[in-house]
Design goal:
There is one protein chain. By secondary structure, the chain is an alpha+beta fold. It has ten helices and 18 strands. The strands form five sheets. Strands 8, 10, 11, 12, 13, 16 and 17 form a seven-stranded mixed β-sheet that branches. It has a four-stranded antiparallel β-sheet with strand order 9-18-14-15. Helix 1 crosses helix 2. The chain is elongated and about 80 Å long. The structure holds zinc ion (ZN) (4 copies). The site of one zinc ion (ZN) has 8 residues, from helix 5. Its EC number is 2.3.2.27. It catalyses: S-ubiquitinyl-[E2 ubiquitin-conjugating enzyme]-L-cysteine + [acceptor protein]-L-lysine = [E2 ubiquitin-conjugating enzyme]-L-cysteine + N(6)-ubiquitinyl-[acceptor protein]-L-lysine. Keywords: Metal-binding, Transferase, Ubl conjugation pathway, Zinc, Zinc-finger. Pathway: Protein modification; protein ubiquitination.
Length: 289
């Protein structure tokens, strides 16, 4: 047995070195992403992914020889036989999946990090929820509140001149979870509107266990909204564009503000609660503990 074979066998015996080995042989030498079938190779055996193949104008990026149409079936076969841990295993995912399913799983894995929910500008920070809560508080100076009811004022001078605006995010902490309250001005068709909505800092399946209501009014009129918070997996723009929240026509918003059109002064009250059946189940477990 030569040295290389020995090395390989040793690699296969320990799971973490197998993983490293697999990552290396399936890494496209051009883009460094994992290669999925069809995997290509040149006459000299240099491999590359199908995306890169379309970009390199039929020249092998490694040896500059003509590439041709050679599939690397051996590598594709090896890929088929592999079971690999999810790349989010350091975050707690225990999923082991075949090579081809791994990518699909990782795109939807519940342990994949969340994007920062801050809405004022694009923020590229990602992480788990406790990390993002600290990040929102320390880096974005976001208002943090405890409790499941709230009463929030949104003020803006010269509202008629503003068609697009994002107000400072507010974070509420209740039921051991975090919720983001958003308030935005935008054009809905031809009409300027304001919109308030809540996002849940967690996954969609957990978001469905909560409900919230929002209320705004004045001078004998009242608008209310009741819904399920959306997960921060959905961008605030996506939620806004689906109108999944309390939408207030500007005319009505100015009427609620006192009607002088010079200042927007809205008081939005709201409440978050747990879905009824789950709440009673939670109460029982609280009694038991
Ligand atoms: Zn590539
Ligand atoms: Zn080559
Ligand atoms: Zn996973
Ligand atoms: Zn951020």
């Amino acid at each position: 047995m030569n040295k290389m074979e020995e090395d390989r066998i040793e690699c296969v015996t320990s799971s973490s070195s197998t993983e490293r080995f697999v990552v290396e042989i399936f890494e496209c030498p051009v883009c460094a992403h994992a290669m999925y079938p069809p995997i290509h190779q040149c006459h000299n055996g240099h491999t590359l992914c199908s995306e890169c193949k379309t970009r390199v104008h039929n020249r092998c990026p490694t040896c500059r020889q003509e590439l041709g149409e050679i599939r690397c079936l051996a590598l594709e076969k090896v890929a088929e036989s592999l079971d690999l841990p999810c790349k989010y295993s350091p975050y707690g995912c225990l999923e082991i999946s075949p090579y081809y399913i791994k990518l699909k799983h990782e795109a939807l894995c519940n342990f994949r990090p969340f994007s920062c929910p801050y809405a004022g500008y694009e923020c590229s920070v990602v992480g788990d929820i406790p990390f993002l809560v600290t990040h929102l508080r320390d880096d974005h100076k976001v208002d943090m509140h405890s409790g499941s009811t709230f009463n929030h004022r949104y003020v803006k001078a010269n509202p008629l001149e503003v068609d697009n605006a994002t107000w400072m995010l507010t974070v509420f902490h209740c039921f051991g979870q975090y919720f983001c309250l958003h308030f935005e001005a935008f054009q809905l068709g031809m009409a300027p509107v304001y919109m308030a909505f809540l996002r849940f800092m967690g996954d969609e399946t957990d978001a469905r266990r909560y409900n919230y209501s929002l209320e705004v009014g004045g001078y004998g009129r009242k608008l209310t909204w009741e819904g399920t918070p959306r997960s921060i997996r959905d961008s605030h723009r996506k939620v806004r564009d689906s109108h999944d929240g309390l939408v207030i026509q500007r005319k009505l918003a100015l009427f609620f503000s006192g009607g002088d059109k010079k200042e927007l002064k809205l008081r939005i009250t709201g409440r978050i609660w747990k879905e009824q059946n789950l709440e009673s189940a939670a109460c029982i477990s609280n009694l038991c503990s």
